[in-house]
Design a protein that fits this description.
Distance between the termini of chain B: 22 Å
Number of helices of chain B: 3
Distance between the termini of chain A: 20 Å
Structural class of chain A: mainly alpha
Oligomer: heterodimer
Number of strands of chain B: 7
Order of helices and strands of chain A: HEHEHEHH
Strand order of the largest sheet of chain A: 1-2-3
Chain lengths: 122, 164
Amino acid sequence: MSLAARHLEAHGIPTVVFGCARDIVEHCGVPRFVFSDFPLGNPTGRPYDIEMQRGILSLGLGLLVDAIAPGTTVVSPYEWSADHSWKDKVFSKEQPFLDPEATRKWLERKDAYRALKSTGKI
Amino acid sequence: MSPHVRYIDKTRAYYEAEGYGKPYEWAHFDDIPFTPFAAVGKPLSECRVGVVTTSDMARRSLGPVPDDPKRLVYSLSTDIPVDDLYSRKSAYDRYATTLEHVDSYLPLTHLHHFAAEGRIGAVAPRFQMIYSEYSQRKTLSVDAPEILKQMRKDRVDVAVLAAV
């Protein structure tokens, strides 16, 4: 997603990325970024919280217009919940990120990619 | 407030513990492209807004959709009622949240309202789905150019990208 934003921007379309993985997006580097400190899945607001969703979208549209330099991050003021324990459980043995079927598909895609790479097809 | 999650470190530790080999190298660049909003040459209230998502959307009314083995960019109309849309994405924090509410990751309803309120000019006629790929090369050489091509055809002025 960050790579797509960079490509659009390089070809004259201003972009804003909404995301919850701050380190990954900033490691890549995007022109404008609205960071929500939420679990992966809801970059534009908590489910069914209409006011929050409108607020986060407004932040992004404001950033589109106001940013004067690339790599500008705006941190959303909204809190997911008072309980932050979800952060400790992400990618833990107790809570595998993908379910078994999704893991199987992911490994298949990874193997296919390596096979293509090893034969010089990509 | 506790610090944000360090996903790069967490995933590296997680997959190392699971016995996987070389850790994934996340994309990194020293330079960041930038198009100032002023270059668009019109106010946001006259801009057509494009939308990109990683949420792998499909339509309930059309029934199950087979997986695309090539995982190419595809698009759907922004006029489809969000109640007819659902996400097929499995990579999200399924313990802490849900993808049941489309506007929490694909803000179509709100963008349509913003257009009606005159805050933006219009929503682009279609939105694009891009897969989160292992291959950065595919994203750079195939997917991103396809999104640009579609947005140019749709005369998109600015783009909103939401990463699930």
